[in-house]
TrEMBL record:
SUPFAM superfamilies assigned to the protein according to its UniProt record, in alphabetical order: Glycerate kinase I
Annotated Pfam families: Gly_kinase
NCBIfam families xref list: glycerate kinase (TIGR00045)
GO MF annotation: an example: kinase activity
Lineage: superkingdom: Bacteria
Family of this protein: Belongs to the glycerate kinase type-1 family.
Alphabetic keyword roster: Kinase, Transferase
Lineage of origin: Bacteria, Bacillati, Actinomycetota, Actinomycetes, Kitasatosporales
UniProt protein name: Glycerate kinase
Keyword tRNA-binding set for record: no
């Protein structure tokens, strides 16, 4: 009797359409329908941004909810994930994400990461010995000042008054008292998981590059850049402001590296370790990955490329909503072929609305091409 054929389905989310868990479910359904008897393992992945907690919960972590401070200071419920080995996964977007803002409302100078610090503190309360801080999709450019405040730091102006929320007030920073930081942090391994390696300040910095996505005008971006420079000078003399990842998520990366002693690692590499990709890919003869848009950004640390690199020589194909990469670029990233929803449905709105059934049709095509 022939050995059962094994396929690993490891996609990221289709942003604005389907979560990674849903993408994996639809692809698996299409594969099973077209190739009955195939052993399909669904392992949704993430790169540290939106959907990270959902991906690790699907891999067996426990979802835990806690009341935190949102980016505008409002109270809200956010989730983190806790593994049996004492590893907690904190998704910054759960507490301080751009998606949490009301439609059309931005707060580039005042949005806070305080809630992210509250999530880290909740993970410590739960006994976490390792905290993976997945950053991405943030609404904030406060250098992680809010996060540090939630963990016990005092950031004050020249009169000794605590600064207000957001990156704007950092221009008045005169003193950073870190003596009150939660002592458990010194005994905890913190991993900064990000696909962004920008420095904190300058033309490639957090404010200049990502500030406009968070509603900052050119003048506000310049204000934030100067404020972050002041912040870095007070915290560590600017020593780690140029470190890779310092500019991640509006500068949260800098606070994690310079104050919390975090280790920076590409987000997808960290998350593949967390969800157990290495064990899952063993024995597979095909890996299906994907994300909403396969484009130039995909080549810079996004999930599909990370999956392809970790596939250990197993053929990798990708599904996507929109394909903007030539075959040569795909091959260079380790992806044999890409299947796009837009090949089945030219209307982008219908592509997003009907992404699930369309993904199942793509998966049937993959089964015919690779499992026939």
């Amino acid at each position: 009797m022939a050995d059962t054929r094994r396929v690993l389905v490891a996609p990221d989310k289709f942003k604005g359409s389907l979560a990674a868990v849903e993408v994996a479910r639809h692809v698996a359904a299409g594969l099973r329908r077209a190739a009955p008897g195939t052993a399909v393992t669904a392992l949704p992945v993430a790169d540290g941004g939106d959907g990270t907690v959902a991906a690790v919960v699907a891999a067996g972590y426990e979802r835990r909810e806690v009341a935190v401070t949102g980016p505008l200071g409002e109270r809200r419920t956010a989730a983190y994930a806790l593994g049996g080995d004492g590893t907690a996964v904190v998704e910054m977007a759960e507490a301080s994400g751009l998606r949490l803002l009301p439609p059309g409302r931005f707060a580039p100078l005042t949005a806070t990461t305080y809630g992210t610090g509250e999530l880290v503190r909740a993970a410590l309360d739960a006994g976490a010995r390792t905290v993976v801080l997945g950053v991405g999709g943030s609404a904030t450019t406060d250098g992680g000042a809010g996060m540090l405040a939630a963990l016990g730091a005092r950031l004050c102006d020249g009169a000794g008054r605590p600064l207000g929320p957001g990156g704007g007030p950092l221009a008045a920073l005169a003193e950073a008292d870190l003596s009150g930081l939660d002592p458990r942090l010194a005994r905890t391994r913190l991993v900064l998981a990000s696909d962004v390696d920008n420095p904190l300040t300058g033309p490639r910095g957090a404010a200049a590059v990502y500030g406009p996505q968070k509603g900052a005008s050119a003048a506000e971006a310049a204000t934030l850049d100067a404020a972050l420079a002041r912040y870095a000078q007070v915290l560590d003399g600017g020593r780690l402001a140029d470190a890779p990842g310092a500019g991640a998520a509006g500068g949260v990366g800098y606070a994690a590296l310079a104050v919390l002693g975090a280790v920076f690692r590409p987000g997808i590499e960290v998350m593949l370790d967390v969800v157990g990709f290495g064990a899952a890919v063993a024995g597979a003869e095909l890996v299906v990955t994907g994300e909403g848009s396969l484009d130039a950004q995909t080549l810079h640390g996004k999930a599909p490329v990370g999956v392809a690199r970790a596939a250990r020589g197993v053929p990798v194909v990708a599904v996507c909503g929109r394909l903007a990469l030539e075959g040569e670029a795909l091959a260079g990233a380790g992806i044999e072929r890409a299947y796009a929803l837009s090949d089945l449905e030219a209307d982008p709105a219908r592509c997003m609305a009907e992404a699930g059934p369309l993904l199942e049709r793509l998966a049937e095509s993959i089964a015919r091409d690779y499992l026939g």
